[in-house]
């Protein structure tokens, strides 16, 4: 084989896979799993363990230390953000989604103080139904949990164009934060494109495709392929993408995303399980499992600094904590 033929036959290296771990979220409640962290020290220790297991990005919510309900209180965030930063070099990604029924002002309170490298940003309003989960439990650890779940049959998760623009300007333009653009349906990809066209988003941007939430696109392989084709059409080479799927679909969709050249998100926010009928013992257990899957496919995981470079982040030295 000639040198020219040999060079043509070489395929470009597959992109490294960024593992995001969503440590606690605002969906599951303490009754559902003893492993779900809600005290600041437990959120910190689980996040640190997840980073050591291979997560380059840690996606973080706060919860009331007394009863585990989601809280937007910056003081609670500051009980674990500095500790995680001190113990790891992982990228810290602070939610702007918060918890159900929080106002946009409440959702922005902690990020505007923390000025993190990344924040999550939901790219459209939607019916967000987690009420079917309430039927699985009869006894509750805390009195807020059942109503919190059941009331989502009459709940719209608000993310208007004005809300999104406000977040992009207040966190992005003013503080250099970049975003995990959470897209629960194909229309949300077009919303990302809308803000790109308006010049409020500049590449590289990070699109998180989300499957299996009631009110969003279903967890079916055809939908994953459709979302990916749509994103390619809209963004070309200007974006990085990742996949999360809720519940039992978590690892299957992570595997498919890695095979297609994407990145992956796991964590107890998205699924409480490690296998069929088996609750995960920790976030790190899920990270370890998905890392094993990714590496078994002959792919490499990205280090935090490699992920920073891939996503154009400002660096941990430029945050507010």
Task: Indicate the topology.
Layout: H1 3-9, E1 19-22, H2 40-53, E2 57-60, E3 62-63, E4 70-71, H3 74-77, H4 81-87, E5 91-94, H5 104-114, E6 118-122, E7 126-127, H6 145-150, E8 156-157, H7 161-175, E9 178-183, H8 186-197, E10 205-211, H9 221-235, E11 239-245, H10 250-259, E12 263-266, E13 273-275, E14 278-279, H11 283-296, H12 304-311
Parallel strand pairs: 1-2, 1-12, 2-5, 5-6, 6-9, 9-10, 10-11, 11-12
Antiparallel strand pairs: 3-4, 7-8, 13-14
Helix pairs in contact: 2-4, 2-11, 5-7, 8-9, 10-11
Structural features:
globular, 12 helices, 8-stranded parallel barrel, two-stranded antiparallel ribbon, 17% strand, alpha/beta, 321 residues, single chain
Structural class: alpha/beta
- Overall pLDDT, averaged? 96
**Helix segment count?**
12
Terminal Cα span: 57 Å
Please bin the fraction of helical residues. 25-40%
What does this 3D model show about the protein?
It is built from 12 helices and 14 strands. It is of the alpha/beta class and 321 residues long. It has an 8-stranded parallel β-barrel, surrounded by 9 helices. Strands 3-4 form a two-stranded antiparallel ribbon. The chain has a two-stranded antiparallel sheet with strand order 7-8. α2 links the parallel β1 and β2. α2 packs parallel to α4 and α8 runs parallel beside α9. The chain is globular. The N and C termini lie far apart (57 Å). 46% of the residues are buried. The mean pLDDT is 96.
